[in-house]
Amino acid sequence: MLIGELAERTGASARALRHYEDRGLLVPARDVNGYRVYAESDILRVAQIKAMIAAGLGTDTIRRYIDCARTGDQGVSLEMCPDLRAELDALATRLDAQQNAIRKTRERLCVLTSDH
Amino acid sequence: MLIGELAERTGASARALRHYEDRGLLVPARDVNGYRVYAESDILRVAQIKAMIAAGLGTDTIRRYIDCARTGDQGVSLEMCPDLRAELDALATRLDAQQNAIRKTRERLCVLTSDH
DNA sequence: ATAAGGGTTCACGCCAACGTGAAGGTCAAG
DNA sequence: CTTGACCTTCACGTTGGCGTGAACCCTTAT
């Protein structure tokens, strides 16, 4: 599958897909003409990447996640994972804090508007 | 109170405080020598601003929030507020989505690490 | 007088995830 | 052979919230 099709089927732009490749998140094969050739499994991978990006994770972290998962499949060492776990925990904590902050803000606004 | 003291008492950098002023979030008085002079109430205001920034709100939205709150104090019109409310709701929704995304990511990682 | 430690206004730098041309190959169809 | 719809690689633009000098003024202590 070429980049246009993958873009269409994942909802990511072609530019984004090339960007993911730059960041090492996606490594498509190349056709003789130089075109990127993607596998079916890349659809799932792109979905995961998009979700992690949306969750506020950086591409560095995502790449480490992917590497960790790959070595996990092969039953190889998972030593790099603990700090990855820590990073995910930290992000979750930050998101909690953000939710609290916005909840307080809304409460203050509700008091002012006498709403609810 | 001068900018250095406010910075110290709020944890925000002096640069950040000037930035907030550029964005219209903070309007300190000026001494004869041109120095910014802040009121005690600005400490609370800066705390609110920091919280809203941390929550992912942009300075435009925050300024509208402040204006809305000010006019609210004086019992004046609150017509500008509905879209502000909508914006806060949208942000809250986005944060929910992010939490879901990171939760799924952590679950996938847990499966791989056979943890829990 | 001068050094130290405040303050001021520009104005460029940064980071991250792409958007957006530019300039040019590839390939099937008319 | 040419149009058109794909693809390729640069490489600069964008958005936001500041960081980080630069160059300069104000005030107090030595």
UniProtKB/TrEMBL annotation, chains A, B:
InterPro entries: DNA-bd_dom_put_sf, MerR-type_HTH_dom, MerR_fam. Keywords: DNA-binding. The keyword Nucleotide-binding does not apply. It comes from the Bacteria. Residues 1-68 form the HTH merR-type domain. This is MerR family transcriptional regulator. It comes from Actinocorallia libanotica. The lineage of its organism: Bacteria, Bacillati, Actinomycetota, Actinomycetes, Streptosporangiales.
